[in-house]
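Archive maintenance. Older records in this collection stored only the sequence; we are now back-filling the structure field for every entry so that each record is complete. The fields below show one back-filled record exactly as it appears after the update. Entries are processed alphabetically, and NUCB2 protein is next in the queue.

ARCHIVE ENTRY
Title: NUCB2 protein
Organism field: Thalassarche chlororhynchos
Length field: 119
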Amino acid sequence: DTGLYYDEYLRQVIDVLETDKHFREKLQTADIEEIKSGKLSRELDLVSHHVRTRLDELKRQEVARLRMLIKAKMDSVQDTGIDHQALLKQFEHLNHQNPDTFEPKDLDMLIKAVSARYK
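Back-filled structure field:
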């Protein structure tokens, strides 16, 4: 367990990506700088349609989970002053402007969020 509030999402994304032979090989041979720089994220365009579809599904589930958490937090806070920046920070590991499909930018953001946590 990484201790990240999106640990399950992270693990699911990795598990799905590793089902693609090409991506798994790239991941195994990549060094940490290639991963952090986003070079590995560009390989997402080469994964199978089935893998992309599953990643899209995972992202939609994660966005729905985050929306539910934010709504619950806003309901509990009521009118006592909401820290909108803190709420938006909950989406730092994915591109919330595109909630329907998992793109290279999502993988890049996920990697950068994890990397920032473990500097």
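Update note: The chain has a mean pLDDT of 86. The radius of gyration is 15 Å.
Entry marked complete.
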